[in-house]
């Protein structure tokens, strides 16, 4: 079958790869759409030792079940696989399982015509939900988890909020906040085209962080959807005493977080990785209701154009989300 294969640092190409064969408890899905994630870009840049080329990346996928108990069904794929028996899994926190895996990491991903996935990782889609919007379920689940953890840290609908990064995760966090009745956040974004787009979408006031930002100690909630040393430093400075920082980006591990201020001012710092199953379900519900979606910020390209899409994202010539299509 045809697949987009990550072949080396900053390199990918269409290849013919082995067609998957389902075993017990597994389904094969004909992939309709699969979004390019920031973690796919991280791997493509050669920064993820877990993703070793040659490898089919991609985990934000939807499609039609070719074989398995739900044969013929339109489904969204939860790409997170876990043991199902440890304390984390039994408590509903499969994303914290010590043996967790993700398709497109050490297992073949969904930038392909077909993908193999456990039966239990499939969610049937309502007929009213398009495949294009349903392909946002996985990153939207991350945003649902992010806002939920912010609430656990003390954030409320009236919180003065800043989102660092206007890419897909930052934008989806803003959509979740809007759906939840939050006051509009301020969104820091260095790309001028994205700032215009975010303003047009009505998700919050934008600003270029290179030109300044909120005064130190004035923000109740900071969502760092970039995850760089410079954004951790900015979050550390702008958050108020007793406020909360939710860290969901994974760009680098450079110094930046002011742990002394976090300690002395009792600032909550919460990391986010993936999502619970109920977060994934909530994401699909938001998409089905129309309270979240990709209109105005998502671009669809064919799988054959996937290699060029990675380059365009790298060069800043792309919208917040490119989704690759097999249709």
Protein architecture, described:
- The protein has 327 residues and is of the alpha/beta class.
- Helices cover 28% and strands 27% of the residues.
- It has 10 helices and 18 strands.
- The chain has helices spanning 38-44, 87-90, 131-134, 137-152, 168-179, 192-201, 229-238, 259-264, 277-289, 306-314; strands at residues 2-8, 11-16, 26-35, 55-56, 60-67, 74-77, 80-81, 101-102, 114-118, 122-124, 161-164, 186-188, 205-207, 219-224, 239-247, 268-271, 298-302, 321-325.
- The strands form 4 sheets. Strands 3, 5, 6, 9, 10, 17 and 18 form a 7-stranded mixed sheet that branches.
- β11, α5 (168-179) and β12 (186-188) form a beta-alpha-beta unit.
- It is globular.
- The two termini are 15 Å apart.
- The model has no long low-confidence stretch (mean pLDDT 97).
Query: Helix count, per DSSP?
Result: 10
Instruction: Please report the distance between the alpha carbons of the first and last residues.
Output: 15 Å
Share of residues in helices: 25-40%
Please state the overall shape, judged from the principal axes of the Cα atoms. globular
Q: Please report the total strand number as a whole number.
A: 18
Which class best fits the helix and strand makeup?
Answer: alpha/beta
Strand content: 25-35%
Low-confidence stretches: none
C-alpha Rg (nearest Å): 19 Å
Mean pLDDT value: 97
Q: How are helices and strands ordered from N to C? A: EEEHEEEEHEEEHHEHEHEEHEHEHEHE
Largest sheet: 7 strands, mixed
């Amino acid at each position: 079958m045809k697949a987009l294969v990550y072949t080396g640092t900053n390199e990918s190409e269409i290849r013919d790869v082995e067609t998957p064969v389902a075993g017990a408890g597994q389904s094969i899905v004909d992939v309709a759409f699969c979004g390019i994630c920031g973690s796919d870009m991280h791997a493509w840049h050669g920064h993820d030792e877990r993703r070793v080329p040659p490898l089919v990346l991609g985990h934000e996928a939807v499609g039609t079940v070719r074989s398995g108990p739900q044969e013929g069904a339109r489904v969204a794929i939860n790409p997170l696989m876990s043991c199902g028996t440890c304390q984390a899994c039994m408590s509903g926190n499969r994303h914290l399982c010590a043996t967790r895996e993700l398709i497109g990491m050490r297992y073949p991903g969904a930038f392909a015509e077909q993908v193999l996935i456990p039966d239990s990782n499939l969610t049937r889609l309502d007929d009213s939900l398009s495949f294009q919007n349903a392909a946002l379920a996985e990153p939207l689940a991350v945003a649902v988890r992010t806002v939920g953890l912010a609430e656990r840290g003390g954030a409320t609908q009236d919180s003065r909020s800043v989102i660092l990064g206007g890419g897909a995760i930052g934008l989806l966090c803003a959509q979740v906040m809007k759906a939840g009745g939050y006051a509009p956040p301020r969104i820091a974004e260095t790309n001028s085209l994205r700032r215009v787009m975010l303003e047009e979408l009505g998700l919050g006031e934008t600003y270029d962080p290179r030109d300044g930002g909120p005064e130190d100690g004035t923000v109740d909630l900071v969502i760092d959807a970039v995850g760089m040393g410079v954004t951790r430093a900015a979050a550390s400075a702008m958050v108020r005493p007793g406020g909360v920082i939710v860290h969901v980006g994974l760009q680098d591990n450079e110094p930046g977080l002011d742990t002394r201020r976090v300690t002395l001012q009792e600032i909550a710092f919460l990391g986010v990785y993936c999502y619970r199953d109920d977060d994934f379900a909530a994401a699909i519900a938001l998409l089905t209701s129309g309270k979240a979606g990709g209109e105005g910020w998502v671009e669809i390209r064919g799988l054959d154009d996937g290699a060029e899409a990675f380059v365009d994202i790298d060069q800043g010539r792309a919208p917040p989300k490119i989704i690759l299509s097999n249709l």
